[in-house]
Amino acid sequence: MGQRQLDDLLPRMALFFLDLTQRPPRSPRLRLGGHACLPRLLDKGRAQLAGKAGDYRYNCPLDQRWFAFTGLSADALLAEMAKERSDGELLAWIATNAPLHRDPWEIASWSAFMEARAPGDAESHQIFAERIQKLAPNREDVVTWFDLLDLDDYVSFGGKA
């Protein structure tokens, strides 16, 4: 492979395989095809494929909620990501292959629910409070799981809470 071919390939590879030891995945608030969490899930899967996931875990409990909503398996989606598909190509694959077809209003409702989701039971409240205490004990605006994930990403990469 010549240098010109390699130079043309590198930006494409960077799109598909992320290094989450250098920067966080996209916010869970970002949406793809209306799906909250999906861009973040794709970032973590691509980083896992590249061996660059750092402290992030593909198919974590948050990801599992998305997989349950769509009926897709984490392994099947990861196999598609390994083919170096773009976000748009993966979204089209999801629409075609998801066992649980969801209408746009269902996706919007699920995404809004996920974005507003806060700790429910006592154990979740304790975990949530411990993370806030560690990251930003004086913050009063961190009330949802997405708030906490965004804060954790920010602080983990040098931001000051």
Please give the number of β-strands.
2
Give the proportion of residues in helices: 55-70%
Oligomer: single chain
The largest sheet, given as strand count, sense and whether it forms a barrel, is: 2 strands, antiparallel
pLDDT averaged residue by residue:
90
Radius of gyration, CA atoms, in whole angstroms: 17 Å
Helices and strands, in order, run as HEEHHHHHHH
Approximate strand percentage: under 5%
Q: How many DSSP H or I helices? A: 8
Low-confidence stretches: 5-14
Describe this structure in words.
By secondary structure, this protein is an all-alpha fold. The protein is built from 8 helices and 2 strands; from the N terminus they run H-E-E-H-H-H-H-H-H-H. Strand 1 and strand 2 form a beta hairpin. Helix 7 (122-135) packs parallel to helix 8. The protein is globular, with a radius of gyration of 17 Å. The model is unreliable at 5-14 (pLDDT under 50).
Salient structural properties:
single chain; 161 residues; 8 helices; mainly alpha; two-stranded antiparallel sheet; globular
